[in-house]
TrEMBL record:
It comes from the Eukaryota. Residues 14-104 form the Helicase-associated domain. InterPro entries: Helicase-assoc_dom. One of its GO terms (molecular function) is helicase activity. It comes from Chloebia gouldiae (Gouldian finch). This is Helicase-associated domain-containing protein.
């Protein structure tokens, strides 16, 4: 008898293959073994592991945490507020056209002001 599986569980094998966590014979690679130790989705775990190797863990960890949560840049329903929200996001991206940089800079601003 088939049991119900959540969509997340059904997507997991595909994610494991796309991050090179398995070899062609479907055995775990070294990366795959490390990913099994992390309590995050495979693509986020790979980001974190590469950040350790490249010595840029702090900003990448912030971005990975932000990606694991609901998008903080949810657009409002009113047109005038949408424009303001889009402009705010562009300011956080600071000309990089990067959603990841916008997330990082938004976190840095909030963290900075919480310190006061």
């Amino acid at each position: 008898m088939l049991e119900f599986q959540s969509p997340e569980l059904l997507r997991m094998p595909l994610q494991v293959h796309t991050v090179d966590a398995m070899d062609p014979w479907e055995d775990l690679t070294e990366l795959g073994y490390h990913l099994t130790e992390l309590p995050v989705e495979p693509h986020l775990g790979k980001m974190v592991l590469y950040a350790v190797v490249l010595k840029c863990l702090d900003p990448v960890l912030t971005i990975a945490c932000a990606l694991a949560c609901q998008d903080p840049f949810v657009l409002p329903t009113l047109v005038s507020q949408k424009r303001a929200a889009v402009l705010c996001r562009k300011r956080f991206a600071a000309g990089t056209f990067s959603d990841h940089m916008a997330l990082l800079r938004a976190f840095q601003v909030v963290f900075h002001f919480r310190a006061y």
